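Reviewers asked in the last cycle whether our approach scales beyond single polypeptides. To address this, we selected a multi-component target totalling 74 residues and predicted its structure end to end. The input consisted of the following lines:
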Amino acid sequence: MAQSAVPAPETAAHPAPVRIPLREVLPWAVFAAVLGAVLIYFIGAEQGATSVFSGTWVHEFTHDGRHLLGFPCH
Ligand SMILES: [Zn+2]
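The resulting structure, written as structure tokens, was:
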């Protein structure tokens, strides 16, 4: 199959970029930011005086992540 030497401007090889409106992305970005903040809290600060849940099970569950992210632990 022969190809043309001069590429067409909007062909399958060079598709037009997909536009994603900010109004569609913003709620998901806020959701991801809140979820990330909650995860960072549980990994980094859920122990001792700042703990929401009693006991150490959340700390033990996220212990490897704590060390992976460089939070002070023990
Ligand atoms: Zn540790």
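The pocket of zinc ion is lined by residues 63, 66-67, 73-74 (CB under 6 Å). We regard this as preliminary and will revisit it once experimental data from Aim 1 are available.
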